[in-house]
Model the fold of this input.
Amino acid sequence: MTTSSFDGMAFRRALGNFATGITVVTATSPTGERVGVTANSFNSVSLDPPLILWSIDKKSGSYPIFAAASHFAVNVLAADQIHLSNNFAKPSEDKFAGIEYTEGLGEAALLPDCAAVFECQSYACLEGGDHWILVGKVEQFSDNGRAPLLFHQGSYSLVMPAQNSLQKGCDQTQTGVQQSDKLADNLFFLMLQAVRSYQADYQPKQLATGLRTCEARILMSLKACGKLTQKQLASQVDLPQADTQSAFTVLQQKGLISYDDNNFTLNSQGAEMAERLWRIARDEQRQQFRQFSDDEITTFKRILLSLINSNN
Done:
């Protein structure tokens, strides 16, 4: 395709089919000028040495500061940090006004509660058409394991794990029908598929709160029970110990839960978040089971509880 016939807008739309994470890249010049820009061009380059890259428009007023800075930080935004993406994407005299941050290597701003943060030494600057490609050598990083914020087709998006579902409209071959009949008679298989189908709609709504599944379950359990010991909570959450322990730490750091007299309890902010989580759960349950009668739902609950109790 020649340059004269190249459709830049169509090209941009086509690129939008590739979902990306969203970052806020920050730096501070030797004279103390601080900058932060929203970028979705972040990518890994090398493990040895540990290199990453991102790109910035050559016309950007922030570029001279990045060029002069010894370090920059890549803050990978979590699902509940759309406000930070919007803040650093728009022109402003002081993008950091009212924004919490700490200083990392080279005094680059580190934003709290991100999915991950990479602190990088400025390593190389490469020509890239109308952009500069900035390569950084990672000297420090943190991994909070939070659900990331995504950008896809010009809109913010959320992570949703891919799930297989029971094939609908199987091929009308003898083999296909036999296989479908066998699967349809397997209650365990059907239960797994039902849970996956339920999660496909429910999980993104839960992740949009910025909490991982383990963290959400802890808050919801405390809302239902008032206070619980660490052992009781771990049993309620029913997830790996490492995830549970990490979740306790994250929730305490965020000021959502307190620990006193061997019990965890909700703080006021935690109680509000827990009520939000329960509201999401209740709305989803009503939506998913709207086609069933009260008697059918009562029977379904009885079956589930019987299966649960039979294995305890």
